[in-house]
């Protein structure tokens, strides 16, 4: 394929991928209730209706509670797993890490159905807590992937120097390792938050009667009059996701640069 054909393919691919996202704000500020061209005019009515909807506010509160809890738990588990896999050698490390990362490649509907069967079989009532457990399972592999890069880039001599200066293992981890990988931790936290906030299938199976933003959006798609409000909500979610992912990537790059600079410069 020549250069012109490759550029044309790239442009068409990007249009196919991002054109629906670009259309969201166009129709979110459109005065018409029918999602079609030509546009009827500019309005902020749909955003006002969105903020005034009590069911939507409840779904937003549930989703934020789930996303914050899941991201914190997944990042903490990711720290332990990434630290163990990059610093220590133990029997069965490869299969164990592969098993932990398995949710990244398994279809979510299979994971959701399996969790539903296990939870109902154990007599656990479906609630926000069960959604948090499911989201932790899904977010932890992504947190491990980010944190493994951060931990593997560390210079082991920094930790050894801390031991030589009289620090314990916990002291060296807290005072030396943790500050160096903090950008990676923040990046994993933000990425896990975004994944949890946008996740639908597990929330649909495990939320019970508690609505979340994705399940609320799905339930409203049956009503044509609610579509403009959903467009407004989608615009807000897309903007929030872009900001969080940009921040996560910024902290990931900053962490890699910081670790590289520290590794070449040594302890000060």
TrEMBL record:
Belongs to the binding-protein-dependent transport system permease family. CysTW subfamily. The chain crosses the membrane at residues 12-39, 59-84, 96-122, 128-154, 175-206, 226-248. It is found in: Cell membrane. It comes from the Bacteria. Keywords: Cell membrane, Membrane, Transmembrane, Transmembrane helix, Transport. The lineage of its organism: Bacteria, Pseudomonadati, Pseudomonadota, Alphaproteobacteria, Rhodobacterales. The keyword Protein transport does not apply. Residues 60-248 form the ABC transmembrane type-1 domain. InterPro entries: Bact_Polyamine_Transport (IPR051789), MetI-like (IPR000515), MetI-like_sf (IPR035906). PROSITE patterns: ABC_TM1. It holds the Pfam family BPD_transp_1. This is ABC transporter permease.
